[in-house]
Amino acid sequence: MGDMLRGVIDTVLPYLQAAPEYGQAAWDTVQYFYEPKTAAIAGGIVLFILLLRIFLGGVLGWLLRTAIYAGLYYEISIREEYRLLFPDDPIAGYIVLGIIFVGTWWEITIVGWLLRKVLRRGGGEVAATSAPAAAGGAAREAFDVKRNDKEEKQQIVIMMTDIKGYSARMEKDEKATWELLKEHNLIMRKAITTHRGKEIKTIGDAFMVTFQHPIDAVKCGIAMQKGLYDFNKPRPTNDHLLVRIGIHRGEVIVTGKDVFGEGVNIAARLESITDPGGISISIDVYNHVKNKVEAGFQSVGTPPMKNIANPPEVFKLQISHH
User: Fold this and answer.
1) Which of 27, 110, 290, 291 is the 20 to 30 A CA-CA neighbour of 148?
2) Last residue of a domain, one of 123, 155, 180
3) What's the total number of domains in the chain?
4) What is the DSSP string of 118-142?
5) What is the pLDDT of residue 321?
6) 72 exposed, middle or buried (CB, 10 Å; 0-12, 13-18, 19+)?
7) Domain span at residue 80?
8) DSSP secondary structure letter of residue 213
9) Taking Cα atoms as reference points, which of 249, 246, 220, 245 lies closest to residue 157?
């Protein structure tokens, strides 16, 4: 083991001692390739990789960016002009080239990460873009998060929404479904803002929204369904945008950015048993809003809910669109 370590040190040490020379060589290489045409091509490549970093995350994005870097590394390393700079020490040439690429990769990664954060904070559209084809069930599971240090339990109203047949639409016509999703998001966010809701997150076609008061949540849900009804009127029946909405008030854990707990799970189950184009609420919400909104209520009893030991009584809203 000691002999192996000494061998590694003996191999690496000369290059560490020559680091200033390699730094100068790196600078000479940059200057050598700095021509208007070469600079324009390099700038375009950097911009393309930066856009990939912003809009294509996950393993696929990482693999694609890595493949581009590897291809560029190979392409430059075999160029005669580059080899002429290191005729006596090709290993040094590869080290210099590696330093240049790692430096570029680091800057693009940091800038891309910052831009993704800014764009998400500005409206959440990038978050929706990154996973437009997420299925409704998968989206609801994605709302489950781990607890962290800044947790606070409180009674709050949770709304969960989901588009009927979203996954099938996406498989059939991804471009048209994405355009439809953008219209859907505008309608939903307009109602959320008007009724003092707080958008916690969106994944694919699913929204999680919280409210301080049940009356605001129910009025928001009614506004959403009426907005979607008006949107659907001129469209053929088989192309209607139908959304299920579940609303529950209960104790949840609130962190700086997330809300989770049994209250969230109940709201998700309410949404899943709701008729497309309808709204379901738990009895606690019903007790706060009955006789206070322009809608009828129909009890559907206490349907079983997966992983919920004591499911609440459920009421479906009957909304007039006239």
Assistant:
1) 110
2) 123
3) 2
4) HHHHHHSHHHHHHSTT--HHHHHHH
5) 76
6) middle
7) 2-123
8) S
9) 249
